[in-house]
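$ run holo --ligand "adenosine monophosphate" --emit tokens
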Amino acid sequence: MPVYFKKEDVENKIKVSILSKNNIGLVPTMGSLHEGHLSLIENAVKNNDNVWVSIFVNPTQFSSSENLNKYPKDLEKDVVLIKTISENINIFCPSETEIYGGIPKLKKYDFDNIDIELEGRFRVNHFNGVATIVSKLLELFKPSSIYFGEKDYQQTQIIKRLISLEKINVKMIICPTIREKNGLAMSSRNNLLSNFDKKNSSIIYNSLNILKNNFKNSDLAKIKKEIIYNINKNPNFKVEYFEIANAKTLQIDSVINPEKSYRAFICVLVNEVRLIDNILLN
Ligand code: AMP
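-- output --
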């Protein structure tokens, strides 16, 4: 079996899978894999006849000011890690041309404003870029199930809407966040941190838990302010946002409605490395 398949091989293999009525599970990634990704792949292997992992650092979800070239890459190690789960997993690692033809182009969607909150406030068009690539992958793989991580909760809500907007027949599976021992959510970007910063980044998940434990406290705004102050005390850390948002609409409601579900979302720049995390509050 080849290590990576070309787009036309994928098309042929998918035709065969569909004719054989095989379930196809797709795990889209940007590579530099860690245990978080592997948990998605393991889940896909358990529940599908054919599993595909795509590895593609998608340029349309990075803005011009974000350093796309700095995104960590380690393709050889990724292949070894995938093959430790099963030799039968198929890997698609396309070039930009295979995906976009010419110059990578973004498609714009109407996501009822959930794309402009939280991450979207700081990464303009990021979610249009994510949706553009996921839409292309869904069209190519025609999977029965597609796997995403709860760590990128806002992304999961975008994909849910994309699937509904494009009326795609696919089951979306959201897998729990896998963490380092100190609570830091695993992320490819953690590779860019010094050991010292990685250790101190435990404050991110701790902060989410402090907010969760105080969610019923009437002075939530003050607690939030104190948490931000404490994180920013570390000279390498800068809180970009720390918000409580409606879990469905991702809008930041000024008054908490106990009948609705809320999550806390955080983004901290640790020496310029963007780390995000979130937690269910009620
Ligand atoms: P990425 O390579 O960062 O685009 O991530 C690919 C998929 O893996 C996305 O659906 C992520 O949400 C998911 N993922 C990333 N980190 C984790 C984690 N720590 N736990 C679970 N899923 C994750």
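-- notes --
The longest strand covers residues 237-246.
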